[in-house]
Amino acid sequence: MLDEIRDLIAAHARPDLRTPVDGLLLSRVDTTEPEHSLTEPLLVLMAQGGKRLLLGDRVFEYRAGQFLLVTAALPVTGRFLEAPSLGAGLVLRPSAIAPLLLEAPAPRAPAGPAIATGDADADLLDAVTRLLRLLDRPADVPVLAPLIEREILWRLLTGPCGPTLRQIGLADSSLSLVGRAIGRIRENYAEPMRIAELARLCGLSASAFHRHFRAVTAMSPLQFQKRIRLQEARSLLLARPDDVAGVGHLVGYDSPSQFSREYRRLFGAPPGRDAARLRAAAPALP
C-alpha cells in the first residue's frame, strides 16, 4: 500500500500543497535544509524519506510508513532526512474529532506533548490510500471523503496515539485549557507577556498555567513567545534585509544586540547574513 500512496502523492502534489479534497494536503520536498515553521493541528503520513522535528528540547523523528500527529499550533525546527520526501497531510478538526470521543474507549495512558509519532498500521494505510484514490475520482469526493476522514480519525483515536489526538476534542484537556493562551501569544507576540493575564484567560492559577502550557508545548510561555518572534522576524527580513534593528523592534525587541544574539542562536547566523542567504536561495520570479 505504501507504494501506491507514494505514487498517488507524486502524481497529485502541488507547490501549494492543496488538493480538491478538503483538508487533504500533499507535499514533495526536494531539500534537506533546516526549516523553522509554525505547525497547525495535522496528521502527516510519510510515504518516502523522513523528517526530524525539534520542539523545545524534545526530538521527534518519523520515516516512510510512520506518521506525525500535531494537535496544536507550535513553533518547531525541522529537517527532512533525505530528498525527495513525499508526505500526505490531513488537517485535524475538533468538530470531526469530538463526536468520536463518545464512542472511543477511555485512554489507558495520559497524553504527552502536542506532538506524537507512530507506525502506520495496515488499517490506517488502507484508509489513507482510499482517501488519496478519490483524487482520481472527483465525483466521489463529497460523499466518501468525510467518511474516510472519520475512519482515519477513529484509527488514530483507538491506537497508541489516541490520548494525544483526543486532546483536541476534550473541553477540559490541557490543550483546551492553554489553547486560548497559545492563540493570544501568536496574535500579540510583539507585546510584553503578562503571565497573570494569560493564566486568567485560561481560568488557571499561574503555577497551573505554567504546568499545562509546558505539558502541551514542551517549552515555557516565554520560550514559546521568543520562538514566534524570531520566526516572524525571519519572514520580515526577507523583504527588509537592510533594516535589522527595525525588524527586531517590530517583533518586540527593544535591544538590537539581544535580537541579533537570539536570532543567531536559533538560525545559526546573524539576521542580515541569514536574510541575504535566504534571498539568494529563493527562486527567481518569472
Automatic annotation (TrEMBL):
PANTHER family: ARAC-FAMILY TRANSCRIPTIONAL REGULATOR, TRANSCRIPTIONAL REGULATORY PROTEIN. This is AraC-like DNA-binding protein. Residues 179-277 form the HTH araC/xylS-type domain. Signal peptide: none annotated. One of its GO terms (molecular function) is sequence-specific DNA binding. Pfam families: AraC_N, HTH_18. The keyword Transcription applies. Keywords: DNA-binding, Transcription, Transcription regulation. The keyword Glycoprotein does not apply.
